[in-house]
Amino acid sequence: MSKLSGPSTSTIPQARPGWPEILTALFLYMIGIVMLGLWMSQIPDEQASLRINIGGVGNGVVGLAALFAAYALRVRDLRAFGFRVPERKWLLVGAALGVAAFGGCFIIEGVYFHFITEPNNQADFQTAAQGGALSLFILIISGAILTPLGEEFVFRGVIANALNRYGAWAGVVCSAAIFGVVHGFNVILFDAFMVGILTGILFRKTGSIWPGVMVHIVYNGLNLLYYSTL
């Protein structure tokens, strides 16, 4: 990890988010996710597609709100949060890593389920993905576009960004660990940690959230398309 280097200091603002932004964004994000989860828990199982789409849209909205709360504190420059246009090659790299991550999740889950048995926590996604073309289209918008945007805004734009000042281990590995834990103590923790490592590396290399967003969109999208075939 020590070989990772950040983008040229001439291309990004000197100021960057720090601990006040991390704590604000993470606190508001977690409060929002808990409230969203309580709302979703009131939706009956017969409306699993509605429940999961509300979750996807809500995740995007909560992430955006947490980002702007952090933005409003001190560093009122979105470029400092990774809102920079990267070179096209990095978007292509992000797409390729999204495909690699999709393949990697089968390895992770194969090893995990060899040792541990747990309920299927992706059942709602699978139900929504198998509900027909319209249901799958809506799910792609909510789960493969809005959710990655909200999560990348918070976990790369704020958290990984702020931790990068302490080096690659903090900026990439620690932010990925936080990202994994937020997904719960189940197999998805390890999938999310893998995605967090890849997106964290791209953010550190480019100073832009968009290559990581590309990883996340491709990864989530391929998973949802896969669920539609089960």
Automatic annotation (TrEMBL):
Pfam families: Rce1-like. One of its GO terms (biological process) is CAAX-box protein maturation. The keyword Transmembrane applies. Keywords: Membrane, Transmembrane, Transmembrane helix. The keyword Transmembrane applies. One of its GO terms (molecular function) is endopeptidase activity. InterPro entries: CAAX_protease, Rce1/LyrA-like_dom. Residues 135-221 form the CAAX prenyl protease 2/Lysostaphin resistance protein A-like domain. The chain crosses the membrane at residues 21-40, 52-71, 91-116, 128-149, 170-203, 209-227. It comes from the Bacteria. This is CAAX prenyl protease 2/Lysostaphin resistance protein A-like domain-containing protein.
